[in-house]
Amino acid sequence: MNSRYFYENFADINELLSAVYDEIVTELGAVLAAATREMSDDSGARWRAGIRAVLEFTAADPRRGKVLFAGAGGNSVFTARRAAAKRQLRRMIITDRRRSGRDDDPLAGEVEAAIYVGALSEMAREWSSGSLGTDLDRVVDSAMGLLSPGGILS
């Protein structure tokens, strides 16, 4: 793309990066919604389906994982977008805790949500880079084993 066409569509590189990130997040949101739409109230099953969907989504096109979890290093656009996505995921976890009647200690819920989001982001980054192998079932099972029973999803 030459610069004339670029600037007809984007004000600058940050606007392009924002559009790329937002498009991938929109696609991932649709994948997550489809994966969990028919789930029961079992939060463990919903989280298992969500983890699997994220990892399958990034495996289908490794560029997605780079944009979502590792791309462009300290680029301010990606940094801001990732921070917003992590806040949204933390809110989802807190909502899930409340729905399941585990809202007796709000601070503990915030800590658990922060740990989960950080761990999931790192796991997805590692999966996207290929360092966790190719056995999706084992990766998802291992993640769920850490999250429950007695873990964050308990």
Question: Could you name the key traits of this structure?
Answer:
154 residues, Tetracycline Repressor, domain 2, 77% helix, 0% strand
Task: Describe the model.
The structure is a single chain. The chain is mainly α. The protein has a single domain (3-147), classed as Tetracycline Repressor, domain 2, CATH 1.10.357. Helices cover 77% and strands 0% of the residues. It is built from 7 helices and no strands. It has helices spanning 3-9, 13-36, 43-60, 62-70, 76-99, 106-129, 136-147. The model has no long low-confidence stretch (mean pLDDT 85).
CATH topology, which one? Answer: Tetracycline Repressor, domain 2
Q: What's the number of extended β-strand segments?
A: 0
Shape: globular
- The CATH superfamily name is Tetracycline Repressor, domain 2
Summing up helix and strand content along with how strands pair, one would put the structural category as mainly alpha
CATH class: Mainly Alpha
Q: How widely separated are the two ends?
A: 51 Å
The ordered string of helix (H) and strand (E) elements is: HHHHHHH
The averaged pLDDT comes out at 85
Per DSSP, what share of the residues sits in E-state strands of 2 or more residues? under 5%
Specify Rg, calculated over alpha carbons: 17 Å
CATH-scheme architecture? Orthogonal Bundle
Overall domain count: 1
Profile the largest sheet: none
Count of helical segments?
Answer: 7
